[in-house]
């Protein structure tokens, strides 16, 4: 399996998880999501054009960064204002090596097992998120990419990528006085993804 196919696999997985979180946490009305079957699992995917346009740009950027081997993490933040973050969903990416790619099975059996892992992870996530308190009605979201300093300089100066603000994040300790509850949601070792939720209490 080459690195481009590997990138496509987890970019699709990230798209599914982002849509599911936005649906399950009711960031948008449930009416803008349509049920589809992905990984032999019922998934709710946005049919709202403005949201879809944003997610497409996010996923294109994720794909670009991962293909260049400079994506380390993606954060989905649910917040009311810049100083009031309620939940952070963290997708950690383990950088794959040529040995990792060679180790991946080359036949359909791998994809079947991979889909089983994703299916289990999605069900686990849905069950764990059910127990969380409802979010404020005017909740918003944004997506952060974490990359290298070299990549930050290169992309922030490239006119092709000016639709996204490229900043050095200094907000990591913004909730240092609050209690943070960590909720592990999924670990997809075959494609190097670990998903965690940070619930700000």
What does this structure look like?
The protein is of the alpha+beta class and 201 residues long. The chain has a single domain, classed as HORMA domain (Cell Cycle, Spindle Assembly Checkpoint Protein, Chain A), CATH 3.30.900.10. It is 39% helix and 29% strand. The protein has five helices and seven strands. The chain has helices at 3-24, 49-67, 98-103, 108-130, 149-156; strands spanning 33-38, 41-46, 71-81, 84-93, 140-147, 180-188, 193-200. The strands form two sheets. A five-stranded antiparallel sheet has the order 5-3-4-7-6. Strands 1-2 form a two-stranded antiparallel ribbon. A hairpin with a 4-residue loop joins β6 (180-188) and β7. The chain starts with a helix and ends with a strand.
Can I get a quick summary?
The chain has helices at 3-24, 49-67, 98-103, 108-130, 149-156; strands spanning 33-38, 41-46, 71-81, 84-93, 140-147, 180-188, 193-200.
């Amino acid at each position: 399996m080459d690195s481009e196919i590997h990138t496509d696999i987890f970019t699709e997985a990230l798209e599914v998880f982002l849509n599911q979180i936005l649906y399950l946490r009711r960031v948008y009305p449930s009416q803008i999501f349509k049920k589809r079957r992905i990984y032999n699992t019922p998934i709710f995917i946005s049919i709202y054009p403005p949201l879809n346009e944003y997610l497409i740009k996010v996923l294109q950027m994720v794909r670009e960064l991962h293909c260049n081997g400079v994506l380390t993490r993606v954060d989905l933040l649910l917040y009311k204002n810049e100083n009031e973050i309620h939940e952070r969903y963290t997708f950690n990416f383990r950088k794959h090596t040529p040995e990792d790619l060679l180790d991946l099975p080359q036949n359909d059996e791998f994809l079947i097992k991979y889909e089983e892992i994703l299916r289990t992870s999605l069900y686990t996530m849905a069950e764990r998120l059910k127990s969380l308190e409802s979010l404020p009605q005017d909740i918003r979201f944004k997506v952060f990419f974490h990359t290298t300093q070299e990549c930050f300089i290169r992309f922030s100066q490239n006119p092709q990528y000016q639709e996204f603000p490229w900043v050095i994040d200094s907000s990591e300790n913004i909730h240092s006085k609050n209690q943070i509850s960590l909720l592990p949601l999924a670990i997809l070792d075959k494609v190097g993804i670990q998903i965690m939720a940070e619930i700000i209490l």
